[in-house]
Amino acid sequence: MTVNVGVIGAGMIGADHIRRLTTVVSGARVRAVTDIDAARAAAVADSVGARALPGDTEVIGAGDVDAVLVASWGAAHAESVLAAVAAGKPVFCEKPLATTAEDCLRIVDAEQRHGRRLVQVGFMRRYDPGYREMKRVIDAGDIGTPLMVHCAHRNATVPESYHSAMAAHDTAIHEIDAVRWLLSDEIVSAQVLTPRRTAHRFEHLQDPQIMLFETAGGARVDVEVFVNCQYGYDIQCEAVGETGTVRLPDPAQPAVRTAGRSATPVLQDWKERFTVAYDVEIQEWVDSVAAGAAGGPGSWDGYAAAMISDATVEALRSGRIVGTGIKARPDFYA
Ligand code: NAI
Ligand code: ISE
After folding, report:
1. What's the CATH fold of domain 3-125+276-298?
2. Which atom of ligand 2 is nearest to the CA of 124?
3. 16 CB near ligand 1 (under 6 Å)
4. How confident is the model at residue 307 (pLDDT cuts 50, 70, 90)?
5. CATH class assigned to 128-268+305-326
6. What is the pLDDT of residue 1?
7. Is 281 helix (H, G, I), strand (E, B) or coil?
8. How far is CA 232 from CA 130, 155, 228, 247, in A?
9. The overall pTM is greater than 0.95
10. Is any atom of ligand 2 closer than 6 Å to the C-beta of 174?
11. What are the Cα distances from residue 200, in Å, to 156, 197, 229, 236?
12. pLDDT digit string (tens) for 156-176?
């Protein structure tokens, strides 16, 4: 079966997913594309033999669209996802599921009313081979009960439009989801420490930040977010258990020895770092749509991540430890 996909938002990652659906993933075809930049939608649609439509309503309502991929700006996600759920169409939504926890809950409620899972959220770390191996080791009990997780999320630079709250909402949201998934545990509180700020930042930004989380099971998690580290895109994660540790491998890169030095390149860009994860993520989404059984991170994970990032931003603002206040998970999402 070929899954016919309609795409909402053809910017950087939307266009990349369209390319992926067309040339990498099997069993899918992009039928329709929309973007508030109509010229962009037309150009991207044209490049893959799809048609450009005026808006998300037309894409979701199109008779030849079986499933929807949302890659517009975060603030536009909720309405498109709600419309897809109302139409009973499976929907893959890039992170964040919505920019407020209230909107995430509206999606959770709508999906439960529909009666089966339709929504997958773009937390692609769960599809990265290194993270998957970490999860296998932890679930097998090879390091005993996990006690601590140390993470770092470093970008070379960010534009002036990036502000301090984005360190949680845009950047650490990936670690937040990855840690909940790795530990099969929920994050119950957040605290933020603010080291001396790097000189290589725009004036308004608190960079770096150290986020401290506690889980319901009592594990402690630290996440260093440093988005102007200058040297590259660097993702680190190590879980420490009662009898051992497991560490995320660095992506394989050639070790070059020359002029009296040995060096291994550091990737510069998140797209490059997680290419395989995105490919597997979208392939598994297409397979799940074809099988009629949504899987992967869902709207509950989107809601939990929103609550945790909100608490983290409040912790940064107040200097206090802030409870995440996540509701009890409905059996529907067990
Ligand atoms: P972008 O700005 O390059 O692209 C967004 C596109 O959506 C633009 O072309 C814009 O015109 C269009 N758009 C905005 N509102 C729209 C609406 N209501 N209807 C139709 N089109 C609309 O942004 P980028 O980097 O592609 O990010 C898109 C989303 O993907 C964001 O939510 C971002 O957080 C997420 N993202 C996820 C990543 C991941 O690793 N999973 C990586 C990068 C982005
Ligand atoms: C970006 O928005 C993403 O989602 C990338 O995956 C992330 O690693 C990067 O730091 C963010 O800016």
Report:
1. Rossmann fold (3.40.50)
2. 6
3. no
4. very high
5. alpha beta
6. 85
7. helix
8. 19, 6, 9, 19
9. yes
10. yes
11. 10, 9, 8, 21
12. 999 999 999 999 999 999 999
